[in-house]
Amino acid sequence: MAQLTVKVLRKKQEALDIASFELVKPDGSALPGFSAGSHIDVQVPGGLTRQYSLCNDAAEQHRYRIAVLRDPVSRGGSTGMHDALKEGDTLQISEPRNHFPLVHAERTLLFAGGIGVTPLLSMAQRLAHIGADFRMHYCTRSAERTAFRDEIAASAYADRVEFHHDDGDAAQKLQLEQVIAQPHAGTHLYVCGPTGFIDWVVKTAERLGWPKDHVHLEYFGAAPQDTAGDRAFQVKIASSGETYEVAADETVVQALQKHGIEILTSCEQGVCGTCITRVLQGECDHRDLYFTDEEKAQNDQFTPCCSRSKSPVLVLDL
User: What is the per-residue pLDDT across 216-271, written as a single tens digit (0 to 9) for each?
Assistant: First the structure.
């Protein structure tokens, strides 16, 4: 994938522990276009690569804007962005990719949990621009942790956004079952945020009869996995016939790396899809949040950054 060099034109504190970064070409030229819901891979100071959703208007070509939550248990990504990056610095990023696209619908309901507002903010801008019927529900712990609140309040679509805070009174909290009580063939739901928030929206929609293909989601991080029962297995490389052991306490990516076989990774949690590898034989133990249940059932690809094998050997198309 093509890499772009960008400059941090502006770094802004958007809320408690949330900073936004406005990225531009150093020579001021146009950036590749993107669609609402897109993200970019960012090479964070310190050598890590992380994905961040674009949260500016997709009609803009002069800049990309991302927002980053400082994670108290950061593995280096968010702290690198918050502490090491300043205005004027340059970064390497990928061109935008979209695994969370808007589909044409009579009505769209957007559910944002915390920093999950970023792709949905771009969607709200796009929907407002085309005059679509939509509503956005933005849930945060408190007003001080609500990024882009003033920007949204000053926008042309402000009357279509409702804010809900955990520390507020009961009357302003999201009554999800009421909002999505009646499934409608022309309405699509989009949800992004912490795993618990997404699961709440998705499971509620499922219980109320919403079709799966009308509920769209994007995770920002995976929930901790129970690895107590993990066992060693082998991976076989189809091109060479070589077989390598994957220990119970290591990933396929780590095991192959020891033998000089590199698989491109990014999130290392099965969220982004960067490391997807074809599986030719064997049964996958899927632990990602990227594939749908239907895609997992096909058993022809997996995410070696976190997923494992249920069979003794997994043959990979490498």
Answer: 998 766 555 667 789 999 999 999 999 999 999 999 999 999 999 999 887 777 77
Place of tokens 């895609």: 295
Give me the CATH topology for the region 233-316: Ubiquitin-like (UB roll) (3.10.20)
d(CA 304, CA 278): 10
Q: Which helix (H) or strand (E) holds 122?
A: helix 117-129
Q: Is 17 left (phi over 0), alpha (psi -120 to 50) or beta?
A: left
Looking at residue 225, its pLDDT comes to 64
User: Strands 18-24, 3-15: parallel, antiparallel or unpaired by DSSP?
Assistant: antiparallel
Contacts of 175 (CB under 8 A, 6+ apart): none
Residue pointed to by tokens 């990602």: 288
Instruction: Identify the CATH number of the domain defined by range 107-219.
Output: 3.40.50.80
What local confidence, expressed as pLDDT, does residue 106 receive?
97
